[in-house]
């Protein structure tokens, strides 16, 4: 649709069919120079719209901010935009992703907009409420059924290694045989280490890294959907998770990442004061294709580094970005030689 179409309400049709199913979850807006009054009306419509709105091209800055993300060929675009070779092709891919998991896509959009002005603890609660909602949905059930039989859980002797050198505490994720997957044992051991840093005033710095070629491959897929109930899952994610603690430690934490950083392997480092990436590092949020949204704090930590627009793009596209792109966006603070 054009800017004028958006201004006239073209994206405002009811988003649900008679059975409550989401229809047409994403609309594409062709951006171009427009009359200021028309662009202003379009921006107001965009802010109130129940659909994902993806811009293509460049246009009025206020309108671009009101959209969910804009795709452009301009390399120097602001954080509301993502530079791609073929904006129309990328927009079509985002539409396909939203149509495959429409509930997850729209919940992601709503969470990113809702939490933009909240403090971190409150925003993490909103993310988790939404995540628990989606855990009970048909899209996640479909993904879970496609997984097939689970592997039996196995105990890990030392899922996290701690070492103290003066006022520096080193924490190493130590499950390289599972690519440091963020399962229950690793999560709990990481939380214990972070709590130690909060309780000990003699610890000035925390350095978090991962053993093996991959920092963290995200949540352990064999544990997805195994919480006894959705309310318990919420409290485990928030009060028992690492995101709040890394946020509280803030500038005291440096995370060093390498390899394929997926899900929690992106979301948790983004809370840290400094993230240093190896040149081979890549970053991916796969949850929407699973019928979910990022659940380890990513809808909170990433927007505070790269904005809600690029966060939505990462999560909806589900494709990796490399270390240099991550540096340009501000997702990492340095790329190591």
UniProtKB/TrEMBL annotation:
Cross-referenced Pfam families: ECH_1 (PF00378)
Domain of life (superkingdom): Bacteria
A GO term for molecular function: isomerase activity
SUPFAM superfamilies: ClpP/crotonase
InterPro entries membership: ClpP/crotonase-like_dom_sf (IPR029045), Enoyl-CoA_hydra/iso (IPR001753)
Family: Belongs to the enoyl-CoA hydratase/isomerase family.
Protein name: Enoyl-CoA hydratase/isomerase family protein
Organism (species): Actinomadura physcomitrii
Lineage: Bacteria, Bacillati, Actinomycetota, Actinomycetes, Streptosporangiales
